[in-house]
Design goal:
The complex is a heterodimer of chains A (169) and B (572).
Chain A lengths: L10 E9 L4 H12 L2 E9 L5 E9 L5 H9 L4 E7 L4 E11 L6 H9 L3 E5 L4 E7 L1 H12 L3 E6 L3 E4 L6
Antiparallel strand pairs in A: 1-3, 1-4, 2-3, 5-7, 5-8, 5-9, 6-7
Chain B lengths: L1 E3 H11 L4 E4 L6 H7 L5 E4 L3 H15 L3 E5 L3 H5 L1 H9 L4 E7 L15 H5 L5 E4 L6 H13 L5 E7 H5 L1 E3 L19 H13 L3 E5 L1 H5 L3 H11 L3 E3 L24 H9 L2 E5 L5 H4 L10 E6 L13 E4 L2 H14 L9 H13 L14 H11 L5 E4 L3 H9 L8 E2 L10 H11 L5 E6 H7 L2 H8 L4 E6 L4 H10 L16 H7 L3 E5 L5 H10 L5 E6 L31
Parallel strand pairs in B: 2-3, 2-4, 4-5, 5-7, 6-7, 9-10, 9-11, 11-12, 12-13, 14-15, 14-16, 16-17, 17-19, 18-19
Antiparallel strand pairs in B: 1-8
Helix pairs in contact in B: 1-2, 1-7, 3-5, 3-18, 9-14, 11-14, 12-15, 16-17, 16-23
The chains are: A alpha+beta (169), B alpha/beta (572).
Chain lengths: 169, 572
């Protein structure tokens, strides 16, 4: 199931700025576990400011109301800021790596890779590893296309995002 | 000045104004126990770490100041997990320092190592692992700030032994700088204005007062609000004493074992003004049937409480005292309310109150009724005495039959329901308020869990009085097995004589009394009240067949309240 741009999507992307302290990921994950909130995906990495990290969490708002998730998250002392990235007002992306049982020269794979602006990043005679970046919907389509070749292994990062730019005045 | 990390910790605690710490030493916390000898802080050496935690809670509950406990690593830390969870549920400000194995040994399954920050993450407002000796004063200052501001709660500081032994130039803590922590303070004037409109229009309003009113020291503001509006008050288990029971407008406790008038007034209300309460399941019963006709104003300092259980019509996220004062002020600007507007409502409430008061059957006088003991205790004891309880039937009778007149005179375990809370919490309460008489009403099952702290009290000259309502059973569990499990009593019998409570009390340095007949109840209480050089334990042999009424069965609607059998058949 994917997030869509309509307001009733069950999955919402929260962008959470946290203090870069030991255990902060455990605090966030533990909160979700003990409150019964479901996480669909979670990405955590440092930001340009070494005091902070950013956690992108795709939450299932059918497990709890978004406001309750945000308010409980906000009680964690190390959580500095929480923004909900609405699909209409944010750019989102995720990264996909996959190994498929097909030669990188297979015309169908070449076509698929070109269509999704993906890349073959490793290959042998029988297998190819491809990498693609895109929004969740595009990567779902790309993944469906890869299934046709036989997927050996696949890893997606989960969604990250930032607010869209405000037009220059 | 160069000091050890342990000395820096003690200096930091002193800088926070700590006067008392409850604790028990062990290997990893040994470095801290040396400078304790030189500290101005009184250390009270408990017999079990759970006792330290509950004592710190009792101290905090009666003083409003944070309770402090110091324990060692591993089992010392895990033994205080229950008090941390208890304090977290009941929003009690605690700072617990736990020893930890040397930082370099963390993760190696070292002797008495446990992942204390991991274990306590879900039961603390925040916790710290101090890895750098230069952090100590800052961490301690942050811990006290977090524990005591906003919605109070417990904070744990995990303190590795090598950090405690490292020398450091002691510096006072910098100003607290927590970018992710900004508790709300003043209420939003627009929300207050909307609340005032609802209050002015309401015909059947109820003030639903929770423990937050006591935490926020908002009793005087609440009294002013009641004076301005005439709205009747219910005080939850955590709020007993926030508004005086002797005031005609106080309906007592709502909830599963609440007063009929309190429960029913909420059910029939058209406006519920929740002040520092959290719509606990023991208050609401079946949520979808709770106060079905009421609009809700929800005042809470914790934004996550808003809408967690019941969606409010007006949310006021603010300090409870400031919010109530703002309500009073905004109501005043609108001019006086017609006092007669609530007359039909209060007349209806009075009728419920008269028809269904708390009651019990004195029987033929051959057995001691537990409710009678509570009444006699109440009548023989000054009204500023502090009452502490454990968890179970005795706790409900204590809340029902005592008369609470002042905030911070009632200490109990509400949210977590921790059996064994009373004895150590009474110790902490007496340490916090040595000028007050402290009585604990305890159950026989509860008493057995933590009675060892009476040894601490004897050794440390902390005299309290414990009334054991000894019915030889885990009474509340027995009541449920009676009512819902076809009287199949499973693992609830305790025996009245095993242990010998009088002998046990005396062996712990207390006066032990046994009371087996109703006419002995009052004299024994009066005798206990005259003893103030040591603790007194009275073993009241009470009637096992008594049930707590009223009762709303778990998960049922509050409309389905079961009244005392002698009141059944009266029109509800």
């Amino acid at each position: 199931m994917n997030a869509t741009s309509n307001g009733t999507a069950p999955y919402h992307l929260l962008s959470v700025r946290v203090e870069n302290r030991a255990g902060v990921l455990a605090r966030v994950a533990g909160l979700f576990a003990r409150r019964g909130f479901n996480i669909f995906s979670l990405v955590v990495a440092p930001t340009q400011d070494e005091r902070f990290s950013r956690i992108s969490i795709v939450v299932d708002v059918e497990s709890a109301p978004l406001s309750q998730i945000v308010d409980q998250l906000g009680k964690l002392i190390n959580v500095v800021e929480i923004s909900e990235l609405h699909p209409d007002r944010a750019r989102e992306a995720e990264l996909l790596l996959a190994t498929v049982t097909v030669s990188s020269r297979d015309p169908a794979l070449v076509e698929l890779v070109a269509r999704f602006e993906a890349r073959v990043i490793e290959e042998n005679a029988d297998e190819s590893m491809v990498m693609a970046v895109g929004d969740t919907g595009a990567l779902d389509e790309f993944e469906a296309g890869l299934e046709h070749f036989g997927i050996v292994e696949l890893q997606r990062t989960g969604r990250i995002g930032l607010p869209t730019l405000i037009p220059a005045t | 000045m160069e000091v050890t990390g342990a000395q820096a910790l003690m200096k930091s605690l002193e800088a926070q104004g700590v006067e008392v710490a409850f604790g028990l030493p062990g290997g990893a916390i040994l470095p801290v126990y040396d400078p304790i000898l030189d500290s101005t802080i009184r250390h009270i050496h408990v017999r079990h770490e759970q006792g330290a935690g509950h004592a710190a809670e009792g101290y905090a509950d009666v003083t409003g100041r944070p309770g402090v406990a110091i324990v060692t690593s591993g089992p010392g830390a895990t033994n205080i997990v229950t008090p941390l969870a208890d304090a977290y549920m009941d929003s009690v400000p605690l700072v617990v320092v736990a020893g930890q194995v040397a930082a370099g040994s963390i993760g190696t399954d070292a002797f008495q190592e446990v992942d204390t920050t991991g274990v306590t993450m879900g039961v603390t407002k925040h916790n710290y692992l101090v890895k750098d000796v230069t952090e100590i004063s800052r961490v301690v200052a942050e811990a006290f700030h977090i524990a005591t501001t906003g919605r109070p709660g417990p904070v744990l500081i995990d303190f590795p032994k090598d950090v405690a032994n490292t020398r450091v130039e002691y510096e006072e803590a910098p100003a607290v700088d927590l970018p992710g922590y900004a508790p709300p303070a003043s209420p939003d004037p627009e929300a207050i204005a909307r609340a005032v409109e609802l209050i002015r229009a309401a015909e059947r309003p109820v003030l639903y007062v929770g423990g937050g009113v006591i935490k926020a020291e908002a009793s005087a503001a609440l009294a002013a609000l009641v004076e301005a509006t005439g709205i009747p008050v219910v005080t939850t288990l955590m709020a007993r004493g926030a508004f005086p029971d002797s005031d005609r407008r106080c309906l007592g406790m709502p909830g599963m074992h609440g007063a009929y008038a309190a429960v029913t007034a909420i059910q029939r209300s058209d406006l519920l003004v929740s002040l520092g309460a959290r719509f606990d399941d023991r208050v609401t019963g079946k949520v979808s049937a709770f106060a079905p006709h009421a609009q809700v104003i929800h005042v809470d300092i914790d934004p996550a409480e808003i809408g967690k259980v019941r969606r409010p019509d007006v949310a006021v996220v603010a300090d409870c005292r400031l919010a109530i004062e703002a309500l009073v002020s905004a109501l005043g600007e609108k001019g006086p309310l017609d006092a007669a507007r609530l007359a039909p409502w209060t007349a209806q409430i009075d009728e419920w109150r008269e028809r269904f008061p708390y009651t019990y059957d004195m029987g033929d006088g051959s057995t001691i009724k537990p409710q009678y003991v509570v009444e006699q205790l109440r009548d023989a004891t000054p009204d500023d005495a502090i009452l502490v309880s454990g968890v179970g039937q005795h706790q409900m009778w204590a809340s029902q039959f005592w008369r609470f007149e002042h905030p911070r005179t009632w200490v109990n375990s509400g949210g977590l329901g921790t059996m064994g809370f009373a004895v150590p919490a009474a110790m902490g309460a007496k340490v916090g308020r040595p000028d007050r008489m402290v009585w604990a009403i305890d159950g026989d099952g509860c008493f057995q869990m933590t009675a060892q702290e009476l040894v601490t009290m004897s050794a440390e000259h902390i005299p309290v009085k414990i009334a054991i309502l000894n019915n030889a059973y885990l009474g509340m569990v027995r009541q449920w097995q009676h009512m819902f499990y076809k009287e199949r009593y499973s693992a609830v019998y305790l025996s009245p004589d095993l242990p010998d409570y009088v002998g046990w009390a005396e062996s712990m340095g207390c006066v032990g009394l046994r009371v087996t007949a109703p006419e002995e109840v009052r004299p024994a209480i009066e005798k206990a009240n005259e003893i103030d050089d040591r603790s007194v334990v009275i073993d009241f042999r009470t009637d096992v067949t008594e049930h707590v009424y009223p009762m709303v069965p778990a998960g049922a609607s509050n409309d389905d309240i079961l009244v005392h059998p002698s009141q059944m058949g009266r029109a509800q």
